[in-house]
Amino acid sequence: MQRHHRLFLAALAATAATAQAAPVRYEIDPAHTYPSFEADHLNGLSVWRGKLNSSAGEITLDKEAGTGTVTVRMDADSLDFGLDAMNQAARGDMLFDTAKYPSITYVGKLVKFVNGAPTAVEGELRLHGVARPVNLALNSFKCMPHPMFKREVCGADALAVIQRDEFGMTAGKDYGFKMDVTLRIQIEAIQAP
Fold this sequence. Notes:
Helix content: 10-25%
Strand content: over 45%
Shape: elongated
Order of helices and strands: HEEEEEEHEEEEE
Oligomer: single chain
Strand order of the largest sheet: 1-4-5-7-8-9-10-11
Radius of gyration: 21 Å
Number of helices: 2
């Protein structure tokens, strides 16, 4: 009888630990999330910078287990170089071809946890109709109570370098433009109610 009692208590403790370690879901705050990019102009003459003004997605996070996922969906038509003429040209078939490829998606797993926070993401970027592995370094990742919403909010600063010609975006290559593009994703996500 005592043995059954101990087994019951052990099973109860394991169930409680599992319940506490369940992943938490966070919804990306589009007002505080702006994926951006930096690209070469004329082989080092200057750096062109742009951002995507419309994004959505979610993060799941289990700090105790050291696991999580991230999905960021970006509206390609919301790209913004700060110059209307460049925006229109980049939306055309010369670069993003947003009529044919209206969205950009990044899906990944949060990895390399230190003190309950990930330091990297292993994932895949779908851009211009091409999906390729892209890993992000996390320069920072922090969760805290949101002062207004009274729910937890997590924020991160992510970085990767891709080769845009690997996604079929070769504009300027014949003129010596470098194909490497630095991606930055500043993100904030609020715990789902």
